[in-house]
Amino acid sequence: MAPGWETVKNNCTVCHSAKFITLQRGDRDTWESMIRWMQKTQGLWQFPDNVETTILDYLSTHYPPGPPSRRANLPPRLMPKS
Ligand code: HEC
């Protein structure tokens, strides 16, 4: 919880769980393109500029680019013998 989280919660967890969001990482442009994609194809509404700024500030600050949320595949030496 940090400034802006309520705006994100109110606007971004209507159609899907917050997990969809917190599993993703990205810079501001990446987050903006995810929003544009939902607006174009998934029925997401337009936000007033100040609301969109709050959402993008929050997501790019707290979910910046980083290591992927899935662990890497196991190396062959750790796989069961076939
Ligand atoms: C109008 C409904 C709706 C709202 C509101 C909505 N989304 Fe989505 N979102 C979707 C749909 C539909 C999908 C695709 C679900 C699927 O692929 O099964 C999606 C997918 C996503 C994904 C996953 C994209 C991927 O590549 O896996 C993220 C991240 C996401 N939304 C973030 C957000 C954020 C951030 C907000 C708030 C700004 C938001 N969503 C608000 C409908 C919505």
UniProtKB/TrEMBL annotation:
Residues 62-82 are annotated as: Disordered. It comes from the Bacteria. SUPFAM superfamilies: Cytochrome c. This is Sulfite dehydrogenase (Cytochrome) subunit SorB. It comes from Ferrimonas gelatinilytica.
